[in-house]
Amino acid sequence: MKFFIDTANIDEIKEADKLGILDGVTTNPTLMSREKGTYPDKLKEITSIVDGPVSAETVSLDAEGMVKEGREFAKIADNINIKVPISKEGLKAIKIFTSEGIKTNTTLIFQPSQALLAAKAGATIVSPFVGRIDDITNYGMDVIRDIVTIFDNYGIETEVLVASIRNPLHVVEAALAGADIVTLPIKVLDQLLKHPLTDIGIESFLKDWEKVQK
Ligand code: G3P
Question: Nearest C-alpha to atom 8 of ligand 1 is from which residue?
């Protein structure tokens, strides 16, 4: 399973990159609004750090606007992946990007039918949002399992990226479901590493080692 980081913050990206586990980055207008500078400049900087896919999200609501924005983003670096929301206009834009060899990430997926249509249109990645489904008391991970099963049934190569991750369990369940990618807030990346027994173990090894040195 690939690990992406869900941020436009350069320090967080550099930190995750140092860990040797980083396969890509996802950004969106909300994440970008927390940072200083322009979106293109930020994307340029991110793509200079990370070799894997870097998602850049369009904000137009019509296909023509999405394509115009996406083509500009795609000029920034070869590893830019154009994020468009699922909609009829989004599908039209995905079809055009695909014909031009530009990779895409279809976002704001909340049900398997949306993922299937995006894949049919040629999406490189689909991004179902587990946390936001859980937030309204449904099982977000059921949607992931269904999408993975449908894609497996038909040999669909579109990758399933689990987005809106809130906790380590989402990551483990995504891996069990066979999802291709998880995109993590830095907080969840930290939580994935932690276990109280690891901390207690380190402390006790150090104490014992100090005794040996006396
Ligand atoms: O990349 C989009 C997604 O991860 C958003 O997460 O926490 O705003 O639902 P969240």
Answer: 164
pLDDT in tens, 74-116: 999 999 999 999 999 999 999 999 999 999 999 999 999 999 9
- Domain holding 189, by residue range, is 2-213
- Among 179, 145, 134, 156, residue whose Cα is nearest residue 3: 179
Q: For residue 206, what is the domain's CATH number?
A: 3.20.20.70
- pTM across the whole model: 0.96
Q: Which atom of ligand 1 lies at the shortest distance from residue 6's CA?
A: 1
Domain count, the chain: 1
Question: DSSP string covering 178-204, please?
Answer: T-SEEEE-HHHHHHHH--HHHHHHHHH
Out of 2, 36, 83, 95, the active site residue is 83
Name the residue with tokens 């941020």: 7
> What is the Å distance from ligand 1's center to 26 Cα?
9
Residue 125, pLDDT > 90, answer yes
CA 47 to mean position of chain CA atoms: 15
Q: Any catalytic annotation for residue 207? A: no
Q: How many residues does the chain have?
A: 214
Question: Once rounded to an integer, what is the mean pLDDT over residues 194-210?
Answer: 96
